[in-house]
């Protein structure tokens, strides 16, 4: 009798636990699906699940800003992480090591690729989901917002039809968009265009595109070399991060072909230093380099409510160069059209470096980066700062955002 009385509650407890577990699992699936769906509806490019002692804080990057979109209680953190691991094809039994995965969804007519990255922390696994909307590349160079002089000079550089073209900037600065706009500028039906990139965001009809598989044994550098052996007229390489990738990319640029590559760098001259620091010989860099673009994406002021104000002498002194007489800068106000944020969309800032004979001599001689930068300015390089100030005077952006982006 005692055994029966003892057994029945235990059995009921197990059944209740199983039921609660099933309810929690269903709830977690619905919660993750809702978070992903809302992010896609709003055009987010990233979702961050940030653990603290009590919850997951969930933030989505929309435009250039991370916005809080919700929270998940502490008890469901592990289940949320496991759900994303299952979707991304990862190991749910491991929570103390970094993992990454990938899955696809279809949203209406859009094909969307989601890349999941997990990092163990003291309060659970930190998760970032990067969202790539796979669309046809339609934006051309003249639609990116380049200063007309920069645009004309860059088109002239592309017209050379050979060499290394580096598109640089921090993560999230729109480098891929510029790369594909560059490809559209030079691609013709009688040429072979090939690309290899960890994330294939855009498609160009006729262009052959591949991406690395983490389970494959070959390295990214080996993939670049293999791509170059297929003799493309236009080659596009994803982010260069080490010596092997840099060497393979530069070697490919010595053939009569256009090689476009992305790289993280603070400005165009810093990109040169980064490649030298990776182990690239300066004479090889000088012989292959045709152009470097550096860029940023910053918030665009709402045209309906932006406010103008006169530029003070103190601001002019801080900027370090003379502005037009009676120059006006602009700031955000907020209205119904922009949801009281004062901003709507983004604007790109650009800096273009084209090597001259003198600049190449300085690179080969291993002159200081500051001397190379000064010579580039003397020859007419328009800095990101100057391009940003010009767009501030046009009422497109705020001076604060320009200076914060540099």
Structure explained in plain terms:
The chain is α/β, with parallel strands linked by helices. It has 2 domains: 15-132, Beta-Lactamase (2-Layer Sandwich), CATH 3.30.450; 137-297 and 349-382, Rossmann fold, CATH 3.40.50. It has 13 helices and 16 strands. The protein has helices spanning 2-41, 77-87, 148-159, 175-186, 220-229, 243-253, 268-277, 282-288, 313-319, 357-364, 369-378, 384-393, 399-405; strands spanning 46-51, 55-62, 65-73, 99-107, 110-121, 124-136, 163-168, 193-196, 202-203, 208-210, 234-237, 258-263, 289-301, 307-310, 328-331, 343-353. The strands form 3 sheets. Strands 1, 2, 3, 4, 5, 6 and 9 form a 7-stranded mixed sheet that branches. The protein is globular. Mean pLDDT is 87; it is low at 1-23.
CATH classification, class level of the largest domain: Alpha Beta
The CATH architecture category of the largest domain equals 3-Layer(aba) Sandwich
Query: Under CATH, the topology of the largest domain is which?
Result: Rossmann fold
CATH superfamily of the largest domain: P-loop containing nucleotide triphosphate hydrolases
Overall, the morphology is: globular
Mean pLDDT across the residues is 87
**Total domain units:** 2
State the share of residues found in helices, binned by percent: 25-40%
Reported for the largest beta sheet, the result is:
7 strands, mixed
The gyration radius over C-alpha positions equals 25 Å
Q: SSE string, helix = H, strand = E?
A: HEEEHEEEHEHEEEHEHEHHEEHEEHHHH
Quaternary organisation of the protein chains: single chain
Question: Could you give the distance between the termini?
Answer: 78 Å
Task: Give me the number of helical elements.
Answer: 13
């Amino acid at each position: 009798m005692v055994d029966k009385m003892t057994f029945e509650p235990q059995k009921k407890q197990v059944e209740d636990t199983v039921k609660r577990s099933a309810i929690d699992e269903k709830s977690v699936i619905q919660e993750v699906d809702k978070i992903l769906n809302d992010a896609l509806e709003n055009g987010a490019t990233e979702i961050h699940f940030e653990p603290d002692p009590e919850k997951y804080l969930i933030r989505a990057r929309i435009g250039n800003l991370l916005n809080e979109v919700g929270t998940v209680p502490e008890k469901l953190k592990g289940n949320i992480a496991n759900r994303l691991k299952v979707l991304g094809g990862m190991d749910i039994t491991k929570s103390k090591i970094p993992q990454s995965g990938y899955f696809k969804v279809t949203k209406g007519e859009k094909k969307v690729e989601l890349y999941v990255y997990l990092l163990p922390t003291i309060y659970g696994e930190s998760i970032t989901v990067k969202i790539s909307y796979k669309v046809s590349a339609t934006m051309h160079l003249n639609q990116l917002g380049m200063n007309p002089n920069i645009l004309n000079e860059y088109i002239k550089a592309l017209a050379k039809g050979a060499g290394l073209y580096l598109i640089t900037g921090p993560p999230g600065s729109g480098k891929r968009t510029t790369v594909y706009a560059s490809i559209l500028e030079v691609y013709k039906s009688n040429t072979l265009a090939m690309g290899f990139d960890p994330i294939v965001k855009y498609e160009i009809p006729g262009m052959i595109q591949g991406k690395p598989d983490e389970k494959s044994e070959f390295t990214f550098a080996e993939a670049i070399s293999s791509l170059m052996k297929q003799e493309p007229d236009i080659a596009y390489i994803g982010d260069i991060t080490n010596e092997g990738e840099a060497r393979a990319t530069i070697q490919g640029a010595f053939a009569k072909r256009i090689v476009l590559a992305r790289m993280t760098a603070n400005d165009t001259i810093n990109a040169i230093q980064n490649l030298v620091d990776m182990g690239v010989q300066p004479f090889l860099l000088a012989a292959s380099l045709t152009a470097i673009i550096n860029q940023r994406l910053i918030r665009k002021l709402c045209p309906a409510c932006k406010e103008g104000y006169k530029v003070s002498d103190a601001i002019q002194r801080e900027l370090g160069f003379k502005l037009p007489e009676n120059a006006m800068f602009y700031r955000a106000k907020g209205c119904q059209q922009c949801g009281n944020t004062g901003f709507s969309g983004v604007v790109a800032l650009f800096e273009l470096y084209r090597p001259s004979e003198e600049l190449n001599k300085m690179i080969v001689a291993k002159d200081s980066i500051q001397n190379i930068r000064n010579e580039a300015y003397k020859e007419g390089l328009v800095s990101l700062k100057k391009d940003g100030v010009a767009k501030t005077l046009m009422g497109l952006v705020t001076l604060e955002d320009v200076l914060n982006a540099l």
